[in-house]
Structures are given as structure tokens and as C-alpha cells.
Amino acid sequence: MTQVALPIVDRPAEKKIKLDHTNAARAFVTNPDRAPWHDESLWFVRSKRDKQASIIPEWEYLRSLASQVKTATIANLGDYLVEFERNATDAGAVVHWAADAKEHNRIVLGILRDHETTKIVKSKSMLTEECGLNHFLEDNGIDVVDTDLGERIVQLRHETPSHIVLPAIHLKKEEVGETFHEHLGTEKGAKDPKYLAEAARGHLRDKFLAGEVGITGVNFGIAETGGVVVCTNEGNADLGASLPRVHIACMGIEKLVPRLHDLGIFTRLLGRSATGQPITAYTSHFHGPRDENSELHIVLVDNGRSKLRQSDEFRAAMHCIRCGACMNTCPVYRRSGGHSYQATVPGPIGSVLSPTRDLKEHKSLPYACSLCGSCTDVCPVKIPLHHQLLAWRKEIGFMNLLSYDKRISMKAASILFRSAKLFSFAGWVGRKALKVLPHWVTHQRFNTWTIARELPKPPKESFRSWYAKNRNSETPKG
Amino acid sequence: MIQPIEPIQTATTKSRQTILDRLMAKEVESPGLPTPDPSKLTRFDDPLAKFSEILEGVGGQVHLIDDPRQVAEILGKTEVFSNAERIVSLVPEAVDNSFDISSIDDPHDLAAVDWTIARGEFFVAENGSIWIEGQSLPHRVLLFIAQYLAIVVSRREFVHHMHDAYARIEAPKSPFGVFVSGPSKTADIEQSLVLGAHGCRALQVFLTP
């Protein structure tokens, strides 16, 4: 085997301290055009989702079915994985198991080296993004081409996707035009999406024809049949999995459903929740390699999932089918952009998942949330997202990971709210202070609350004294 | 950092055990798998009309015809078909082949196909999709590599929704099967919908008796 001779280059793990969400979002939020424009784009997608959900009378019923199927799958995940492996192998696929990202990458590289190939075409997969596959393969001399248009755009710009379904949602068409002018030779200043998409079509068709191995993600694996299902609108996964002789499908172990007919539930929910479409343009089912001269490799990846399963509090996050509905509806995500989450999966579900990997590094994410609950309302598999975010905050407080200013103010608030006398005295001080203190005292850099807003005018008297005057004499009726 | 590689098979066997051990270590209660109640699922008075409405909504075109030969007639009126040089028809009673597909071994040789005329097994009313069985395709890439795609399917072969669709498929008959709904499309550039991303630029569906 060639793999023994060739060494593997592993990039040394760079441990950089991540910014907290607030600081990472600053540039995006303070850009007067960008944040409202981004907000509107995503609200448009959310509205399309609402329309689709409202015309399906059994929508809520489908959500509970989906949630039940996922609960049962995750409960018996070990058994279903073994069943999946057996049936996939019987169908002629080769099943690999990867405990973590590093191993996943090595397995993929091993298969590529076995075939002595350096040219691969890849369709969208958040899992390979999570594993850092592109960088790893590039470091080892492989030419990786992302073929989903949005992913290709961010790849050419050396960026990461800012959304799991709409990877380039943070970019304006002028910026895409600029990128394509530089890399694909389109006309300078061109910004017509039709023209730009046509240029990408031509460019990527050459790559498809040159690709020697196709890598795809997996939307659903089916334990009963050993098959995998891939959903796309562009048809890029299909070209990538149908032209080369070798197809590698990378799959998170939580992507299983037990039976073929369970797909009836999930294919109805996925497209509608994701982009407001009745179904994706292509919903492709792969059972084994396409013929006797071809290969299908399925890489099952854990990378923290089995650990997440052990948590009673956060287990339901494994139900996620990566539709992105929670991002599209989240008022914080819409205004702060996906990159501010500094994680492969941003938005509400990302804010739940990232801390399960490294709580210290991602401790600010559960606070990037107004607890409005909208994510929980739209989630097609009923993950109680905002409850989980609140649970993380408790955990962060309990672990003493809160920032010093938050810890002090929480302690102070707790003391204040526990004593009626102290509370009323503080109110008196506050009303007086607001009246007499000069503006510069209340508006300085230590008071972050007043950076973008004025303090309220103090009322003449407290509610307590108003109540004593106006209501105390009346005896409650009944 | 350059290191030797451990053979995949040993590594994968070890990790398989690690993952399964971790999954088996914690027992999790579950209410069991549900079975959808058919009485709670949408049915349509006019499935054909619903299918057409949805498919046209996502950029497909639907034609009701009485005779398969009408496919060639209707397509012939369009420039993209009458100018086409390479047509692969998997429905010989509808459209003639312009070259012999059986001589092709390597799917890459199909890169210049202008049209594929494929056969659909059945259609789904609720979402405007059509199920195509891999075994009806000499090369599955034909569905995706052709510039234009037409699908011929009987209007008697329908299901109301995806639950019935999978009940009808029952078990995989070949390594590949796909629900196709509309032409290939993208909205990755500022949410503007563009038809014809990598796959077909347009989809024509012909419903025969």
C-alpha cells in the first residue's frame, strides 16, 4: 500500500483564544448597511419557511413524529450503527469508523492515497468543515474543490461558511463579482447573479470532469437498508458521486434513521424548514457503489457525539438535521452574522453544540441569545434550544466561568433582590442619582450600557410609594 | 510534523469499539419508534393538479399528453431541443436517441449531452417530485450532466405524500434512486434564485395516460 511510504502532515494544533461573541460581532453590528441587510435576507428565508409550514395541516404532527424517531434512534444508537454497518457492507460499501476529526481526515487521505489521486470534488458537508478536512488535505498535497456554489465562493475568498445551508449569505453580489473577477476571470464590476452563477457553472464543470474522487456529506443514513441520502438543490453532490469511480460519504453518527419509511417524515420537514422549499431539487439515495468497478466508502464520525449523548440535559441537540431554521429566525444571529460565533455551526444550535466541545472557549455563546424562544418554535425536530441555552448559563455560572464583571453584578443583584429594604433604598439612590449626576459621570467607558443609549428620566416617586398612597386604603374585594 | 500512518483497517476497528463502548455505556430510555397515523396525513382531491402547481412553482414545466410521441413534438417547438446535437432518450417510444448510449463505458464521455429523456416511476403530489430508479439509467450521471432534462411519467402513477412514496419504494432496488423536483438551482448569490446551477437548466415533465 502506498500509504506506508508517504508520511502525513498534521498541522500543529493552534490554540488561539477566541474572542467572545460580543467582540467578534462588533465589526458586523456597527456596519450600518450590513447588519440590517443581513437581517432582512434571513427574515425572507424564515418567512418562506412559515408559508410552507402553514400549508401543511399536519406540520406539528410531523414535528412530534420526527422528535420521537430521533429520541428512539439516539437511545439505541449503538445497535442502529451496527445494523447500518452490516447492511451497508452487504450492499458493497466499505464502512470506516472515526473516533475524532483527526482520524476522519486520515481515513479520507488513506483512501485518496490508495487511489493515488490528488484531485477531488467535494460537495457541502458541515462535518468535513467541523473536522477541518480541506486544510488537512491541502497540507498533504490534495487539490480540494468545494462544488456547492456558496462554498466555492467562500473557499476562493479563504473564508469559512457563515451559515450551514447558505454558506455565503454574509456576502453581497458585488463582493462575489469581485472574487470571481479575480479567480474566474469574469468581467470587472459584474454583479448579476445569473451571469456569475453561469461563470461558476462552467468553471466547476471542468473540475467535476477532472475530479477522481467525489466526497459528499450525508443528510440521512438508513439503518434498515445501509443506504445514505444526500439532499441538494444544485445537483453538485450527484455529479461528484456519479462521475468518479470512488465516492466517499462522510457521516456524523447521529444522522441515522432506523427505517427507510422514516424518511417520509424527514424529507417533508428538511427542505421546508431550511429554505421554504417543498423538497430539495435532488434527494438522492445511495445503496452501495454504482457498479462492480466503483467504490463507496462511508466514514462514520463520532468526534464528541457519543459524549454528548451521555448528557441528559443536552442529548436532544443530537436530533439536529442541520436545516438552519433556528439561525434564520434568531434575532441575534440575523444581526451579528455567522462568523461572530467562531464555530462551524453558528446560531442557536451552534451555541448549544460548541460548548459541549470546549466550554471555556465557547462560554460566551449561550449569552448570544435573548431567550426569545423563536428557535425552539421553528425547530423541525423539537430541540428545546432556548432551554438548553439557559441550562448552559447555569452550568457556566456553576463552573465559575463567568467573566468577572458579570459575576460581581449577578452577586450584587442577588443581594439586592433578596432584601426589600435594600431594594427600596437602591431605588431611592437611583432616582436621586439620575437627577443630580452630570452626564459625563453616567456616560463613560465603564458603563457599557450607556454607550449607545440615554438613561431614562427618573420618575418623581417610586411605585411603592404611589401604591401606598393610592391603593393601600382599598380593601381587596372577595 | 511528519508522522507515519497507521493502516486504516486497524485504526477503524479500534475506533469502532471505542465508539460502540461509549454508546453502550449509557442506557437511555426511549418511548420507541412511532408509526405515522395515515388518517392524520394530507390527501389531495386532485393530486395531479397539486403536483403541477408545486412543480411549476419550483421552475419545472408540466405537460399532459395523450400519446408519448407528443413529447418529441412539444420539445421540437423549442429552440434548445431542435438545436440539440446529443440527445439520450431512455424512453424510446417518446423520443429517438441521437447516438448509441450502449457504446459508452465511462460516464465522463457523456459531458456533452444536451438532453436526457428519462423515465419516472411515479410522482409525489405534495412536493412536485418524481422518483427515478437507478436501474432505468445506463449511467446515473445522465440525470445531472445533461444541459436539459425531460421526465416521462404516467399520470396514473402517483402518491399523495412522502410517506406513501417510501411505502411504495419499499426497499432499494438498485444502488441509486432519486427524487427530482425542478431544475437544478442555486440562491447562493444574495438569495437571488438562478435556475441551472450544475445540473439541468430546465425540467420538462410529461404526464402520459
TrEMBL record, chain A:
InterPro entries recorded: 4Fe4S_Fe-S-bd, 4Fe4S_Fe_S_CS, FTHF_cligase-like_sf, Helical_ferredxn, LUD_dom, LutB/LldF, LutB_C, NagB/RpiA_transferase-like
Alphabetically ordered keywords of this record: 4Fe-4S, Electron transport, Iron, Iron-sulfur, Metal-binding, Repeat, Transport
Domain of life of the organism encoding this protein: Bacteria
Signal peptide (from-to): none
Pfam families: Fer4_8, LUD_dom, LutB_C
GO molecular function, one term: metal ion binding
GO BP term (any one): lactate metabolic process
4Fe-4S ferredoxin-type domain mapped to chain residues: 310-340, 360-389
Gene3D superfamilies: Alpha-helical ferredoxin, NagB/RpiA/CoA transferase-like
Official protein name in the record: Lactate utilization protein B
Organism of provenance: Novipirellula aureliae
Automatic annotation (TrEMBL), chain B:
Domain of life: Bacteria
Pfam families, sorted: LUD_dom
Domain LUD: from-to ranges: 110-207
Annotated signal peptide: none
InterPro entries xref list: FTHF_cligase-like_sf, LUD_dom, NagB/RpiA_transferase-like
UniProt-recorded name of the protein: Lactate utilization protein C
Organism in which the protein naturally occurs: Novipirellula aureliae
